[in-house]
């Protein structure tokens, strides 16, 4: 069973295949359509099956010499998954395509020339676009990497994107030592929570910025419980009280931006001279504006998709992250578990504002 979509944005209508006959949309489907297909998209862009139809039963190809049969165990819904469906993600698969870029699976059959994997292994996708919102898949051996089986299922399912992104950003751009500090927005996101925990394990302080909300205190307490040093509202970045904070905490060498717009600009204002701001997302859908006072800061971008080609480095990173999980220093974000048949409900929940729970499809 797979969750599949067909998108034809940017293709001349005459080149499009005939769409299938679709039944009238119910309220839930209409909401998903309005969220996933904004008005500025071409009128001939369609998302079929994924929004409007049922799960599809498809025939699996034969397992080749260098292939493996994978049973998908669990797969989350991430913002990048939604962006890929919308056609706004940097990497887009051939269509029609199966949704999902992250998840954990188990090897059920191996080809005769497969060497790096064995029956029963847990695996993660190496790159985006594998399509994890399905029950089974036949994939090439080099499309996946094995993973330790002694960690919780939800930790495994949510390991390949957010914790890896956090690990690399904390490791690759500044030489951070115990006592140094990092500032980040979107601190309650999957990446943000992983940054908090990995930084805490290294003795690095974190200044965590989140949007104001009715349950701010509860969320702040939850982030501090996993290792956050400071949790502040976005509005506080522009207030004189920030000077008081930096009397007890060094100015950050590293800023991590997952929002963009004014939020990113404010992070730059508080960055240490010569520090780096790394942008890994743009939830506000607004450009990053660099203030004149930040002339001596490095403004960079990062995508985990460009890193995973280095298998040896990928393995080292996974081993360290699994070690943190075993020690209880890295946990999965709060998750809502739903069956694959409830994918529409999960998508609706993932699209809601101020969502702290990650939607995970359990196969």
UniProtKB/TrEMBL annotation:
Belongs to the zinc-containing alcohol dehydrogenase family. Quinone oxidoreductase subfamily. Residues 53-361 form the Enoyl reductase (ER) domain. GO terms for biological process: fatty acid biosynthetic process. GO terms for cellular component: mitochondrion. InterPro entries: ADH-like_C (IPR013149), ADH-like_N (IPR013154), ER (IPR020843), GroES-like_sf (IPR011032), Mito_Enoyl-ACP_Reductase (IPR051034), NAD(P)-bd_dom_sf (IPR036291). It is found in: Mitochondrion. Keywords: Fatty acid biosynthesis, Fatty acid metabolism, Lipid biosynthesis, Lipid metabolism, Mitochondrion, NADP, Oxidoreductase, Transit peptide. Its EC number is 1.3.1.104. GO terms for molecular function: enoyl-[acyl-carrier-protein] reductase (NADPH) activity. This is Enoyl-[acyl-carrier-protein] reductase, mitochondrial. The lineage of its organism: Eukaryota, Metazoa, Chordata, Craniata, Vertebrata. Pfam families: ADH_N (PF08240), ADH_zinc_N (PF00107). It comes from the Eukaryota.
